[in-house]
Amino acid sequence: MIQKLSILFWLNKSKANSIGFAPIMWRITIDGVRSGNYSTGKRINSQGWDNKKQRATCVIVNGKIKQIEHDLDKKYLELYNTNGSVDVFTLCDYYNKKTDINPSLQNVCEAYFMHLQDMGEKKKMASGTVRKYKNYYNNIASYLINAHSHIAAEQFDLKQADLMDAHIKKGKGCQQLNVNKILQFVFNSLAHARGLGRISKNPLTGLCFAPIAAKKPTFLTSIEIAMIQNHKFASTRLQHVADMFLWQCHTGQSFLDFANYHNNTRPLS
Hints:
The chain has three domains: 5-98, no CATH class; 105-195; 222-259, no CATH class. The protein has helices at residues 59-83, 88-98, 105-121, 127-148, 158-171, 176-195, 222-230, 236-251, 255-259, and strands at residues 5-11, 21-30, 33-34, 38-45, 49-50, 55-56. It has 269 residues and is α+β, with helices and mostly antiparallel strands. The longest helix has 25 residues, at 59-83.
């Protein structure tokens, strides 16, 4: 029996968050019977969504959509070859049940980032911190989507970590310190999945990232300080900046201490 399977993706604008990002939803139809609505786990601004093409302007989001399409088609064929026919609800149950068994590293990192985004929306994490983690996640997703989306979370060992390290440093031009932070994000993603029971172990447990050699502190000499002190800046604003800098040099106060002075406090005579 020939059956027609269709998959629809759309933007649920009614569920947009405070910054205007709405979840991308999906549902399937088999022979005119519709399933319920499911989230892709991705959010995007309405300006970045093409409703006609059912695609986003973001490559990472489109990669997730293609992955869902591929997984649904694969599971549909598995059920069809076994039973000779497939109904909507059986396929959805089968898909949702299997997605959490031996999840890929990409799926685990994505779930952790969604958790961080949710914390940001609930004001439990600063928006700047969420943006920082988003940058880490984008680097990881770019590496995995290109050629390594099949890596299971529990199989991500030290060798795989070295490959990711080399790719991000060479392809993205990241310094080792930032690469270590990205790998720490992977470790935290695996620990998060382990805590939820999605994986039986964290394969990176006990891994220590290569230490970064500390840079030797440098100081201005008394001659260099005198040059700044004697220089006449053309801009009044720059002259004020220089005066504040010299005050910190002579008193040892940090910029934060200096910035905390109120308008009625006059540290300079």
